[in-house]
Write a structure and sequence with these properties.
By secondary structure, this protein is α/β, with parallel strands linked by helices. It has 2 domains: 15-107, no CATH class; 115-198, no CATH class. It is built from 5 helices and 8 strands. The strands form 3 sheets. A 4-stranded mixed β-sheet has the order 5-6-8-7, covered by helices on one side. Strands 1-4 form a two-stranded parallel ribbon. It has a two-stranded antiparallel sheet with strand order 2-3. A hairpin with a 2-residue loop joins strand 2 (82-83) and strand 3. Helix 1 crosses helix 3. The protein is globular and about 50 Å long. Residues 76-81 have low confidence and may be disordered.
Length: 200
Amino acid sequence: MLEHVPGPRIGADSNAYLIALWQALQSGWTPPDHVTKAEYDALRASPDVNPVLAAWAGFCCSFGAKWFGGWVSDNLENSSYKAGGRRYENYQQAAKRGAAKQLEKLKNVLFVCAPYYALELPPRSYIYCDPPYKGTTAYKNAFDSDAFYQWVREKSGEGHTVIFSEYSAPPDFLQLWERPHKTNLDKNGEARTERLFTYI
């Protein structure tokens, strides 16, 4: 989303590896053309040996871009990546091209590692959040959706504009948009409706 927004921008995530990856890309780090299954497994076992490469493998060489959610080959015949009955050839190469394309529009973004509730926000910020969706696959650390909804209410009351993605939200939130899609986190391509919400 950040690549489509002009002006001063902050990109935040609580995953330190992801932030380290984007900071490295901004500094000129070039991702590898290919991460083997053996390399992937070694990075998953010891990510702190090379945090940036671990982040690349963990997100960009993984099924559905889920943190070490299963190695995806860049070869069509060997790829385990399948969604909605389709296979994707050269997945790792596509990830590398996509990162390079995005980087052109993200060079001036300030990337910080912080949970949403600890961010220092400029007055009247425009905030987009993509939290773990309530009731879906659990993350390593439990996410309190109700606490997040309350934070959105409070930030909106402070004059910020907050928009977030979810499948559903409490009734006092306003739905802005929706689109059915098949999630890539499910090998069967389960159909769900993604929505954008705000609070007024």
